[in-house]
Design brief:
The chain contains five helices and four strands. By secondary structure, the chain is of the alpha/beta class. The chain has a four-stranded parallel sheet.
């Protein structure tokens, strides 16, 4: 993802034990490339992606979490449905998204 995105949505599991550390690292990275962030601490995947679309985020980053991994098909399919460029901290989610590329 590049600074052309303007705002990057960040999907974070509100129950992840390392959530605060993830947010601190992501905030620092966003500042380094001069983009804003839209942080979504929500496990409702449909609502999260609707919010991302509503705010016209240029891309989404999905932070690592066992919850997102367990729901990877839904996360990846929503990113594809909204034609949202996505990056995944988890290799398993990234691998799952490979099948959705056209």
């Amino acid at each position: 993802m590049t600074s052309r995105a303007g705002v990057i949505a960040v999907l974070v599991d509100p129950e992840a034990p390392n959530r605060q550390e993830q947010l601190a690292i992501l905030a620092q990275a966003a500042r380094a490339i001069n983009v804003g962030t839209l942080v979504l601490n929500n496990r409702d995947i449909d609502t999260a992606f609707a919010t991302i679309a509503e705010h016209q985020a240029g891309a989404v980053f999905v932070a690592a979490s066992t919850y997102w991994l367990d729901h990877r098909d839904q996360v990846v399919s929503r990113a594809a449905r909204y034609k949202m460029p996505a990056s995944y901290e988890s290799r398993e989610l990234q691998n799952a998204s490979d099948g959705w590329r056209h």
